[in-house]
Amino acid sequence: MAQELIELFRSVLKEELQPVHERLGRLEEGQQRLEENQLRLEERQQRLEERQQRLEERQQRLEERQQRLEEQQQRLEERQQRWEEKLDNFLIETRSHFKKIEEELAEHRRMFELLSNDWRNAKIDIDYLSAKTGKHDAEIHQIKKRLELQHL
Fold this sequence. Notes:
Blueprint: H1 2-151
Coiled coil: 24-118
Keywords: Coiled coil
């Protein structure tokens, strides 16, 4: 009887505890899924942090590049300013030389006009003297002819 009572008691406990065991099993499965989800979340969190770190590194490199570009742009602007100053100085110097050349050209023109006038006057004088010489030659020739006729 004691044995039957123990068996009965076991059977009742087993029936009564069965839903508790099932519920505990489901709780353990839920706990297992929660732990797996937690692990996946932590892995995702780790990947996000790694991506965040890479993004920050890229951001840092971009900022450094931007800084170098700004420095290069500053140097280019300075070079451009120097080139503009050199060009301005060159233009001023060129204008000065051009003005001097124009003045020398005007002086050469005046000299050419004077020489041209002198040459024209000399040509006129040469033509006049040449005509006179021709006239004198003709007169001398006539005198010679007369003298030759007188000696004969």
